[in-house]
């Protein structure tokens, strides 16, 4: 592969973000036909990644790196092997037809351009996720998929259900993303590596680390939430509130597969342990059964497919968790098959909804003649989902059964779970692909007719691809499955796939059992649906309801904490702030190095003692003042004492500045206070006063000890020498203090001035507030108390 082709990969990954900018403009000009133009972008990306297939199939691995944030070790680096290349091809290839499909599905929608933009950002985030080599950049793309999916799921933001589903998906996957970040940071700490390729080449470094279990838990937290594993499965069906193009893209090749991708990617570094081979098959198997059982209960085509996606993700996690090479081969093969048939079936469901006005399978029938192309696509994809020959789904089922049956431990249980799950998925495949198209014609809200080419192009091509992948099984295994499996096992592995089994074996018998069980369950689908609905109704509570309860509890807790910490009392706020300040200053100063340390008191000269006495006298004047106004005026004595210290130590300019600032501060504060209702004395009880005195003393003592400790350290003159050397040369000024403020800290000074101006305006607004009399209320008496100005 030439360097130019490798550099083009960066452009290929970032191209969708550029397309996101162009999409609204193109849509405004070309309306829904902009889909034809915009689809060129993912098509070119797909063609670009196909160039890596020959090299990857021979065991080549490609890395591309560009500096991004070198100060923090973050590089924009990409890692292309069998796993990432196939994922990138699925994302861009299926994404091409999703763009076309969105053009027809949202034809005439006023926000179609915005929708295209969100789709491209989502596509770019997924491409970056599956190709990133740097752990931190992978995390950035990981969270970007959550953000962009939030925008897509909540696209119809005027509907409360869409907003809830979007927020739910963001909270669940975003929370898992934070756990993943912590896991990545621990990996970087343990290995000293920030590149995924280096971590994978590290062998048993992570498995032998004492932090292996925390790292595994954190990584699983990110993967399980993203790929909707039990008990986090509930967000995925709710995401069906999104328009169907989003559902088809989300479930086939993008976000929900991100967690599976991560587990497969990190298998060489984290897999093969007892914990791995226990936790993943357990949660994956539960998710498989829960997803298929809940799918049986549904009558909405999209929800039926959504729950089977949950089940399929559980199957993939279960197979990945076995760490058996043959089971892993079944996992990668099923991942390919699932992407093809599930993308096609979701688009079929959208076409039915778009052209008939309903997705309720109980209200559909006889559409075979009215929608022949859609029916053909549904039949081909449904047969693959059911695991019947001659489709890629059949081969995937054979291989995964071969893998589970050959496990050294738990073979019977894992195989039984796979058989039951696949049988129930056959039931749903039949319900989606047969029920709407066969039987007597049913009156639908809209006159049923075939959709435009923008709608059916995607499902037709994807379903035919599933057929072609099976008919060309040898090439599929050699070019795609073998390189992908090599990425999982960490060594070059050859794969031979055959459409027709060579002999009667356990996997073939298990396939026959699966089909027979599936047909039997399909024939009693109505009773099965009612039974599942009855059980769920009896249970009542579920994770989805638990999520609402959890969010409500968090809101209630945060409200309570806010009311506790933000009770509206300025005195409490100030006390907490100064208490924390005093603790932060006093504790480190007193207990330095674990032992009480008191700095030495300096040897003051007589005039320095005189200044200290002036400051102490000013402090006494503040304490004995009868009114707050008097206390504010006498507080200026402290500032003047500081100005005298500056003057005594040879800083007349700084001393003059201090005199001016202190004088103006006292004058302005005095003018402000004269406009307010000032209490003549402190009305607080003695206990409150003692607490305030103790806090003030702690803060004062803390600052004293810190400053004494600082003055006893050797003076570092590097900063002073820098300003002395360059103030005249760079800033063309001889007054070093002024040069620092105006030039070297120009933006900082501008910010301070802006803050002061805003504060002054705020104070002015507060002072000018007057209580407006109620016109309907009787006039208040003209007493002195009535003239009091309220400042709020």
UniProtKB/TrEMBL annotation:
State the compartments where it is located.
Cell membrane; Membrane
Please give the organism. Pannonibacter anstelovis
Q: Tell me the ranges covered by the NADH-Ubiquinone oxidoreductase (complex I) chain 5 N-terminal domain, including all copies.
A: 72-116
User: What does the UniProt keyword field contain?
Assistant: Antiport, Cell membrane, Ion transport, Membrane, Transmembrane, Transmembrane helix, Transport
Which protein is depicted?
Answer: Monovalent cation/H+ antiporter subunit A
User: Pfam families of this UniProt entry?
Assistant: MbhD, MbhE, Proton_antipo_M, Proton_antipo_N
Q: Ion transport: present as a keyword of the record?
A: yes
Residue stretches making up the NADH:quinone oxidoreductase/Mrp antiporter transmembrane domain: 132-417
Alphabetized InterPro entries for the sequence: CPA3_Na-H_Antiporter_A, MrpA_C/MbhD, MrpA_C/MbhE, ND/Mrp_TM, Proton_antipo_N
Q: Give start and end of each MrpA C-terminal/MbhE domain.
A: 689-775
Q: How does this chain sit within the bilayer?
A: Multi-pass membrane protein
Record keyword Phosphoprotein present: no
Residue ranges crossing the lipid bilayer per the database entry:
6-27, 34-53, 86-106, 113-130, 167-191, 211-236, 276-296, 303-320, 332-352, 373-396, 408-432, 453-474, 503-525, 573-594, 606-625, 632-650, 656-678, 690-710, 753-769
Protein origin, superkingdom: Bacteria
**Sequence ranges assigned to domain MrpA C-terminal/MbhD in this UniProt record:** 614-676
Major location (coarse): membrane
